[in-house]
Amino acid sequence: EMWKVIFIITGLSVYIGFLILANISKKYERRLAFTCLAPFLIILNSYYIVPDVFIEDKAPMDFLLQYKDRIGQDTILISDNYMSSAVCLCYKRNNVFLLERVGEFAYGIKYDESSKKRLIDINKLKEWISQDLNKKHIVLITSTKRYNDYKQKLPRPFFENIIRSFVFADFGEEKHNNQ
Description:
Order of helices and strands: HHHHHEHEHEHEHEEH
Shape: elongated
Number of strands: 6
């Protein structure tokens, strides 16, 4: 990882050098050119410097796609407001339940009566899992931080995978997962 530090130092040095050249130049054309060229190396190096983990934490599609075979048409998908858009897009579903927080969906839930049924709390989820374990295939997809809050209140999932910022918890039986 030392090469990243070298890239940063080089980029900052070139940036400062161009700004000094822009400051001492007399012609406005040169000043403008040096000022525009100053951040060039930093921008070029940023592709290599920004960690992949940071990028993956902001884009959950790769995480979701690896579980596509575990999701059937009868699977009840439950997600938080942060992940629900990606869940809908990845699994091509429009019937995802929101767990406790509505976030940007507050406006739609406020005006559409049918969508109010899509908002559930942790107790309702626990009830669904406990009552319908043999009947329904329930999957919870959420952030790790929120899952740690929910984990103590829920039964142990049949399958659970926690990767950095995301959690996939499958509360179905094995028969549901071998579709």
